[in-house]
Amino acid sequence: MHDDQFRQLLDRFNLAWSGYRKVRKGVKKRISRHMQTLNCPSMQAYLDLIKQNKEALRECELRLTVSISRFFRDRQLWDGLEEDLLPGIIKTHPRRLRVWSAGCARGEEVYSFKILWEHLKQTHTHLPALEITATDKHSAYLDQAREGIYTPGSLKEISPEMRERYFKSRKRGNRFNIKAFVKADIDWKVQDIFAVPAGSEFNIIFLRNNVLTYYKQPLREEGLCRVTKALIHHGWLIVGSHEKMPAGVSNFRRHASIPWVYYREA
Ligand SMILES: C[S@@+](CC[C@H](N)C(=O)[O-])C[C@H]1O[C@@H](n2cnc3c(N)ncnc32)[C@H](O)[C@@H]1O
Question: How far apart are CA 62 and CA 57, in angstroms?
Fold first, then answer.
């Protein structure tokens, strides 16, 4: 597939060419295969077909979606959360802590947070009641997240001791299954960031490696605004390590020492 054809498709969904830089080859392949299955000889024929056929549209959106993730992605962030940010938040909110992972893919980010919380139990005599919501646009990813089975590649930031403690090793296929106590008490929901909110009054929201990377402006800003409306005043927003706040957003201040973490000022 030529770049200009791929651009045409991305434009149809308001997706950003730059966001797909590293994954373009693979996504193009997935789309080309779909075009072949549907007997579409050109991008225009494909665009016409997905306009009329809801199933083909849904499949095309899924093939355009990048769902790459891993446990403790951006290690510096998780160290900063454990050592610096969370102890302070827990002091300020001793009763209840609400956390939302928006665009959670197969659950690696949410389970990383749950593992971090288990660590905090060792150093804190009292922790607030934790309420975690994890959402994604695609139900298939959430089904896999609930199942919680991962390849060794997703666990490369996890030490052997942690792996022993939080995962069951599955003999067949060299896979690791997250243990039931880590899976417990997570509210999984299918939700499109551009549609209804997943809840409100969150203390911490993870919005990493989705709207701020893969969508074009003004959708980046719109997605960000929709999500951050659900954040409490003085709540924390966590973005991906290659992501920036859109220029029009002014009510957030960057955390002094943990990159990618923003504090909502108003
Ligand atoms: C690359 S993964 C990021 C996973 C995790 N947040 C991380 O940083 O490791 C992006 C996820 O965002 C989801 N996503 C993309 N657009 C979305 C939207 N409009 N609403 C909800 N989820 C969306 C995708 O389905 C995918 O699972």
Answer: 9
For the chain, domain boundaries? 3-64, 75-264
- Kindly give the number of the ligand 1 atom that is closest to the alpha carbon of 136: 22
For the question of whether the overall pTM of this predicted structure is more than 0.85, the answer is: yes
Measured in Å, residue 123 CA sits from the centre of ligand 1 at 32
Is residue 227 within 8 Å of residue 196, measured between CB atoms?
A: no
Tell me how far the alpha carbon of residue 105 lies from the centroid of ligand 1, in angstroms: 6
Return the best residue to mutate from 136, 191, 208, 213 for the ligand 1 pocket (most ligand atoms within 8 A of CB): 136
Cβ-based burial of 10 (10 A; exposed 0-12, middle 13-18, buried ≥19): buried
Query: Are 65 and 138 within 8 A, CB to CB?
Result: yes
Q: pLDDT tens string for the chain (266 positions)?
A: 999 999 999 999 999 999 999 999 999 999 999 999 999 999 999 999 999 999 999 999 999 999 999 999 999 999 999 999 999 999 999 999 999 999 999 999 999 999 999 999 999 999 999 999 999 999 999 999 999 999 999 999 999 999 999 999 987 778 999 999 999 999 999 999 999 888 999 999 999 999 999 999 999 999 999 999 999 999 999 999 999 888 888 899 999 999 899 999 97
CATH architecture of structural domain 75-264: 3-Layer(aba) Sandwich (3.40)
